[in-house]
Amino acid sequence: MDDKLMLMIPGPTPVPEKALLRLGRHPIGHRSGDFSKVMAEVTENLKWLHQTQNDVLVLAASGTGAMEAGIINFLSAGDRVLVGCNGKFGDRWADVAKAYNLNVTTIEAEWGKPLDPEQFRQALEADANKEIKAVILTHSETSTGVLNDLETINRHVKAHGEALIIVDAVTSLGACNVPIDEWGLDVVASGSQKGYMIPPGLAFVSVSEKAWNAYKTSNLPRYYLDLGFYRKSAAKDTTPFTPPVNLFFALQATLQMMKAEGLDNIFARHDRLKRATREAVKALGLPLFGSDNCASSAVTAVAPVSVEAEKVRSMMKSKFDIALAGGQDHLKGKIFRIGHLGFVSDRDVVCAIGALEATLQALNADVTPGAGVTAAGRVLNAG
User: Fold this and answer.
1) Around 105, how many Cα atoms within 13 Å sit in the side-chain half-sphere?
2) Per residue in 246-264, pLDDT tens?
3) pTM, whole model, 2 decimals?
4) Which of 68, 195, 184, 196 is nearest to 136 (CA)?
5) Per CATH, is 263-382 categorized as 3.40.470.10?
6) Cα–Cα distance between 136 and 99 in angstroms, integer?
7) Start-end ranges of CATH 3.90.1150.10 in the chain?
8) Could you tell me if residue 370 is left (phi over 0), alpha (psi between -120 and 50 degrees) or otherwise beta?
9) How far apart are CA 336 and CA 338, in angstroms?
10) Quick check: 60 pLDDT over 90?
């Protein structure tokens, strides 16, 4: 049946009807007063979502563009940086930093395991000459479903005094608590196709005053991603370059929806869906990739043994029209990932788990009938 695809991947995520209808509106001039009104409301609500009074700047880019902007606007060639690497995206930020001739030291953990905050503490305390200019890390590592301990790592950065903290919050912003001002986070990047519940195309960067001070001396090359342009324009409720106007319409709608739901309820919903998914997967006899104590609220990674991961994904798509994500790099074919991020409800998780159970049965896996849905229901009914 056409048009029944169900996205259960960590991005792009499902888009609510209100946002889809806004996408279908006629565009307006991006230098018009009407667009400035949209921009003003969006900016105010982005600060609410980010829990900050800092600038929250909007780029026409992906999350990678936001992170690259976060790196190149506040650092200079030769600066020493620590980069946390325990998945695809941590590795990517190390590559970006090296591309701009930064002096990169990586702090690594095995994929599927969280970064060790103690290693950051030791490296930062050993930096007596304050040569480390930034710590760069991924909060929710999308490739593995692991949530890193940003709060503790950030405390060690703050104790250092000099270094900025630059955070990939692409799959954590809008899914779990990221209190930017309370924690004093300097640069936080995210993307529209995740917790924001709209299609890809917009990226967001929150910038602290400490980071803006570093901007004054940064010498890395930039133009389109020069955040100074965006700051000046945002102060006038406009953008420095042509924006995807209709994505702003959609974002206006989803931010209104998020405010109506409330931050605490948003975080509780994502936590509930995470726990329901993980308990269901366990009940189906499938090993989880990563432990419960570092599980992301956005995505659950599964490492099947009795069935092939790609066969599960293929049958879920062909038989039930449900899209699951695969593994990346050396995990390709070894894991599949279930997204439960953004515009996802209890019903969606129950449906996906039921389809997964039927898929496992079709692949001759040893499954207790009803075990997955029963386990998910137990969590969902408990609230």
Assistant:
1) 15
2) 999 999 999 999 999 999 9
3) 0.97
4) 68
5) no
6) 15
7) 263-382
8) left
9) 7
10) yes
